[in-house]
Amino acid sequence: MPDTTSAVFALPMFLEFDRPERPVRSARLRLVVAEHWGSGGNDLEGFLIDPPVHRHAIEQGVAATADLLDDGLDKAPGIIGVHRYLDGLPLQDFVYPKRINTSAEREFDPALWGGLPDKSKLPHRGLGKWFNTNTDESQWSLVSSAYRKDGFQALANGMGAMRFGMQPADGIADGAVVGYGGSGGGNASIFMPEPLFGRLDRLFVRYYLRIGTPVGVAQMSDLRRRYQVYHDSSRRTPVWTDRAGKFGITPDHTTSYGGTSGSSGMGYGWQMRLAWAECDAGTDGPDEAGWRPGMHLFDFGARQPPGHNYAALPKREMYWGQRGGFGGMLYVNRWYCIETELKLNAVLEQSPGFKPDGEIRAWLDGQLVYERTGMLFRALPLHAPAADPGRIRPCRELGVRALWLNWYHGGTTANSIERSLFITGLAWGRQYIGPMRMV
Hints:
Blueprint: E1 79-83, E2 131-132, E3 140-143, E4 161-166, E5 183-191, E6 202-211, H1 217-220, E7 228-229, E8 239-240, E9 244-247, E10 249-253, E11 270-271, E12 274-278, E13 291-295, E14 335-343, E15 358-364, E16 367-375, E17 402-409, E18 419-429
């Protein structure tokens, strides 16, 4: 509650004044310092609390032309694929039942690199399904609308969700040596059809996301579960376990030679994951355990030409909320409609091999929350190492090759608490999709 009667206030503080009856030409505020630490002088700064207001209307897309809960959306113009996680459907309808090394070129149609076609391989095989890569199958489950754990409530009657779990790392505690790796909660791909694989230059991806609370909000934001650990056995410099990482379902063209942590850009490969950073302020505020979402541009670093090293961007230019604050925080136990657009930059056969005309956008619940243009993600010529069946090279024009679901803690340390994430209402295509019809 606002304090309007105390004679003394501790800083920082907020002041509210009566609305003036006439325009203000000048004003004077007199403060008396009642207590002061130290003997030296200090500066006192004041700021006008006048934040911008988000005024964007909800944008309807092709999903508004479909029936309820995306029924028939797969037939709409520009739509490439739809996943409807309805009650009663088995996990195998959406996830390929066999583990395949999707980082090995031997699993893919050689025609993608100019060889003889083989339609028994990826991306023809299991087209439209998730290929789980290096996360434990026990972390995946398809829950019905009746599921009631982890703070879950169904988005709509009869619609379930894909659940992803993340457990605390073994042995993580104060003083532990944890290395530099993080913790995975979901890692899977849905590949583009062969005619689009490596050629598609624009993709919209829409899905509904909910941050679960398997141990409750208070336990998730408990600062006692943020530990001081060490990267190596020398134990010289302790670091806090970081509560941040990557998430989302986004386009990618990752290869064995580029596209992941710090290696995106030019002719090597690229990704467009989202970034999350958890609020653990320990003040019982509404943001506790929620995520600050943004675009994970940190990977576009040293391989990029001058002016396009996005790893050096200020964080405020990567995180959402830049358009009036809306979308700056995702709260737990709440569904959000997330949609991203990636328009890849044009590539050229002649030097420098690119035009910096790429674009990225994000919408939350149908409202634009992030936009950046004039970007560079790819270039020709392709990095062309000798073929290695156990690795995968970039191909074609470095267009979109897949949807990448990547939920990861880290970073620099492993996860320290139990987590869960829910996703439903997935659709992807070549035009803006927008929120699904719910009523």
